[in-house]
Every structure is written in structure tokens, then in C-alpha cells.
Design goal:
Length: about 500
């Protein structure tokens, strides 16, 4: 524990609110949220020393954290709890600075609203300005995640755009601690805890639009790493065409979700767009005449006329516990964010068999593997085939930028494999332009295979055949495999062969 920046004192003096003159400029020393969390308030700045009134002036953990936050020497003085509250209220009310953002009450506590795009003031610290710029650039560049990564000699800030990480803001190692502390303060995360993973959230507001930011921190060799997931609160409605489904699959998908009961499973790895597909399906449904409930972890987008439940494992509200309660609420349609265990799977199947339509996701590689995965979790095959009406496997691939797209010859091995007779057949690529940040790609689309339950597939599942045999039965019944859908999108100029090879395992 480093206390080099603490001014030594055998016994800290005691101050009262009545004897302290509030200097509004001190509000820029630390944000109000940090002052309230650490139970401190800055009362004087002289040279490289800041005097803090504290409830526990001998607490070396708090003193060390104040040094980290301010980069200055700390002189502690004692104060009583009522006087501390009074000084915090006076200081931050007098400052009128940006450290008084609106606050939203939620089950997670207070969530700060960061308003971007405004004019900075003298009360703004360099760290506040820097983080606001990082957030603004992430929004403008359509980033889904921000990574703040400390290393021995530098701190990297990277954006994930269209599924790929790019360096965005290289910084010095010294900028990492104040930047991360600012993120943790906004996310209502304990800024004095550096050894354990933590989670939080806050909200961004920019030109009338709002985004939820989910914060996750973990300790690493050179400090804490933070990942900020950016989710639009007012997500635009996607149609099935915009998901990337071809006409046959789209019509089949519509027929499946129009059924009065049954289960639709969406499979794929993390980040393959499963939740977006489920939300799109829910938006196609009648929510006026039906009771629609979702159980999610976390609730990513707000849906009108849909009751959305956030699971909370710390208090025992798991997917299974929430589903058990939801089924007593007379639901017509239930979306379970993820099936992780046999208990949740069994309850979802029973719900599908008793007159409800259930949507959920399952982690496996393709649609046929969902059946074998379910039996591995303890479900009898006949229950699976009786309840499941469809299974979607999907991946996300980047779209070729339409502004710089150019044709190029189709490689001969691919032409032979696809049995294309035209020797002049072409595929496409993006040359790179300003609009796509010179990557050749802009936006993403889905690659799908949709397995509709039929007699041939039921027979294969009920006989506990392998996933390969189930897949073969589905393809013989007309299913377009994931790799075939991907190659169709290459030939139609939607994406590139390189992108398909990156995101889709073609030899499966």
C-alpha cells in the first residue's frame, strides 16, 4: 500500500462545516459521486497538497485512493458525519459544474447520465474531457464495445466496430488510473477495490438519443481492464429482411413464430446476434392481444407492451426461478434469454407443451447440435421433438461497403466447388473509403440455417442419432446449411469470402 503522497500527521485536526469557506473550484478535484462513496470532501488546495475532510482520516486505503485520483499529496483532517454531508452539499451545489448529472433510480442504485456534445467548462478535469471524447467517438464510429487495456508502458483504448477491434486512443500508462476511476465512478463501482472483477452501468445522452453503457472490470498484470458495452436504449426496429434472411428462410421463420405454441431455439457463439434475432421475432408478434414476457440477463432493449424481467443471481432470481413465476402470470409468449441448465430447459419445454410459445437461445455450433446438446442436459428426445418447432443457427459477417465495392474474378477452386459454369463469374470486395474507415466493410448481416422440425428430423432425434445424422436429415428435407447461406451472400456481393472464412466454419 503506497502512502507516499500523504502528509504525515500524528493526530488529524478536526474541522466543522461552519468554519470552512467553500471554494467552488475544488469541485473539480474529485466528482461528487467519489466524494460520497469515499466519505471525503476537499476543503483546501495549496501547491501540490490538497486538504480533505474525512470521517476516517487515518484510513490509508482511502488516502491512497485519493492520491491515485488526484495525483497530489493528501492532508487529512477529521469531520463529523453531519458536517461532511453539509459540506458536500454546499461544495457541489455552489460549483454548478458538470459533476451533477441527472440520476436514474433503478434496481442497481444510481446510474449517472453523461451528457455528451456540450461545451466544456473550466470545472471539467482533463479526465472528464478525455472520457467524454472517447464515448463520443465510440458512438460516432458505431462501436459496440470500448476496451480500456493497461500494459507496462501504455494504455490502449480500443473500439469493437462490426465485430472487429481497432486501436482508437493510445495513451500513457499514467492516464489509465484516472480514466478508469472516472469510469468506475460513473458506473457506481467501488473505486477502492482493485483486486476483484466488478460490474456497473451508466447512461449516455447525445443529441437527444440515449445509450446504456454496461461496465465490466477485471484485474490484470498491469492494472484493471474495463470493457464498456454500448447498447442503444431506443433501438430502431429491424425487419426480417434487414436481419439478412433470404426469402425462403424468412417465410419459414414467419410461419414458425406464428404458431400458437411450441419453442424456437436460436443457437450460435457469443456475439453472433442471437438476441437481436429474438427481439426482431418479438416485434413481429401481436403484443396487444397477447401477454408477452421476457427474462433476460441483462435487459438489452426496451420493447413496448412487453414485460421485461432482469435476472438477479445474487438474490436467487435465476432464469429458472423467474420462469417458474412467469408461468403463473398467464403468459402467451415467453422469451428466456438463455438456457444454461437442465432445470431451465425442462421448464421451458413444459411451457411449450402446455400452450405457450417460448423463445430462447442455446450455446452450440449449429442447429442439429441443439438436439444432442439438449439430451446431454438430461432432456428426453421425445420431449425435445414434441416441443421444439424450429432451430436457427447463425453467425454475423461484415457487409461490403456499398460506396467502394468493386468486382473481382471468382477464384477457380471456389467456382468448381460451387459448380458454377460461368467462367466469368465475379465476387466483390471493398477498396476502402472514408465512409468505411478504409476497411472495405460497413455494417453487418446475418448468416443463417433454419431447421424446421419435421418427421425425418424427429425420427433422427428420437433414435438418438449423432448431430451429423440429424443435419443430413434436415438438409435432405430442404434446409439450407450455414455454409451454403454464407457462400450465397458472397456470390451476391453482400460480403467477402475472407469474411465468411473468418466467421463461418465452412467444412462443418
Amino acid at each position: 500500500m503506497s502512502v507516499q503522497g500523504m502528509v504525515p500527521s500524528n493526530e488529524a485536526p478536526v474541522v466543522s462545516a461552519a468554519n470552512v469557506s467553500v471554494d467552488p473550484a475544488l469541485a473539480a478535484v474529485i466528482p461528487r459521486a467519489a466524494a460520497e462513496q469515499l466519505q471525503v470532501v476537499p476543503i483546501e488546495a495549496a501547491g501540490d497538497t490538497i486538504t480533505f475532510a474525512m470521517l476516517e482520516p487515518g484510513d490509508v486505503f482511502t488516502l491512497d485512493e485519493l492520491q491515485r485520483l488526484t495525483g497530489r499529496r493528501i492532508r487529512p483532517v477529521a469531520i463529523t458525519p453531519p458536517d461532511l454531508r453539509a459540506l458536500i452539499a454546499r461544495l457541489y451545489a455552489t460549483s454548478g459544474g458538470p459533476e451533477q448529472p441527472s440520476e436514474l433510480m433503478s434496481e442497481y442504485g444510481k446510474s449517472n447520465v453523461v451528457v455528451l456534445g456540450g461545451v466544456t467548462t473550466s470545472a471539467d478535469s482533463h479526465t472528464v474531457i478525455l472520457l467524454n471524447e472517447v464515448l463520443s467517438q465510440a458512438i460516432q464510429q458505431r462501436a459496440s464495445d470500448i476496451h480500456i487495456e493497461p500494459y507496462e508502458s501504455q494504455c490502449l483504448v480500443r473500439f469493437r466496430i462490426d465485430g472487429v477491434l481497432y486501436d482508437a486512443f493510445p495513451m500513457t500508462q499514467e492516464q489509465h488510473i484516472p480514466l478508469l476511476s472516472r469510469v468506475k465512478i460513473l458506473g457506481n463501482i467501488d473505486i477502492a477495490e482493485h483486486r476483484l472483477p466488478q460490474d456497473g452501468r451508466f447512461t449516455i445522452s447525445l443529441v437527444g438519443k440515449r445509450w446504456d453503457v454496461r461496465v465490466s472490470t477485471i484485474p490484470t498484470q498491469f492494472g484493471e481492464k474495463a470493457v464498456l458495452r454500448i447498447l442503444p436504449k431506443d433501438a430502431t426496429t429491424l425487419g426480417l429482411e434487414e436481419l439478412g434472411m433470404l426469402e425462403r428462410e424468412r417465410k419459414l421463420f414467419e410461419s414458425i413464430i406464428s404458431k400458437p405454441y411450441g419453442m424456437l431455439l436460436v443457437t450460435g457463439p457469443t456475439g453472433s446476434g442471437k438476441t437481436t434475432t429474438l427481439y426482431t421475432a418479438l416485434r413481429q408478434m401481436d403484443t396487444v392481444g397477447r401477454n408477452v414476457v421476457t427474462i433476460e440477463d441483462p435487459v438489452e432493449y426496451e420493447l413496448p407492451r412487453v414485460s421485461q424481467i432482469q435476472v438477479h443471481h445474487k438474490i436467487g432470481l435465476s432464469f429458472a426461478a423467474a420462469l417458474r413465476s412467469v408461468l403463473r402470470q398467464d403468459p402467451d409468449v415467453v422469451m428466456v434469454g438463455e438456457i444454461r441448465d437442465g432445470e431451465t430447459l425442462g421448464m421451458a419445454v413444459q411451457a411449450a407443451l402446455t400452450g405457450h410459445f417460448v423463445f430462447s437461445t442455446l450455446h452450440c455450433n449449429d442447429s442439429a447440435s441443439a438436439a444432442t446438446r439438449a439430451t446431454d442436459m438430461g432432456l428426453e428426445p421425445f420431449l425435445f421433438t414434441s416441443s421444439v418447432v424450429g432451430i436457427i443457427a447463425q453467425r454475423l459477417v461484415r457487409r461490403i461497403c456499398t460506396l467502394c465495392r468493386v468486382p473481382e474474378p471468382l477464384p477457380e477452386p471456389l467456382r468448381q466447388r460451387l459448380q458454377i459454369q460461368d467462367p466469368h463469374a465475379s465476387i466483390f470486395r471493398g477498396k476502402g473509403c472514408r465512409d468505411c474507415r478504409h476497411t472495405g466493410y460497413r455494417g453487418r448481416t446475418g448468416v443463417y440455417e433454419l431447421l424446421a422440425m419435421n418427421d425425418a428430423v424427429r425420427e433422427a432425434v428420437n433414435e438418438r442419432r449423432s448431430a451429423m445424422d440429424i443435419r443430413r436429415a434436415a438438409v435432405q428435407s430442404g434446409m439450407v446449411a450455414l455454409r451454403e447461406d454464407a457462400l450465397r451472400k458472397v456470390l451476391s456481393g453482400v460480403t467477402t469470402l475472407e469474411e465468411v472464412l473468418r466467421a463461418v466454419y465452412l467444412d462443418s
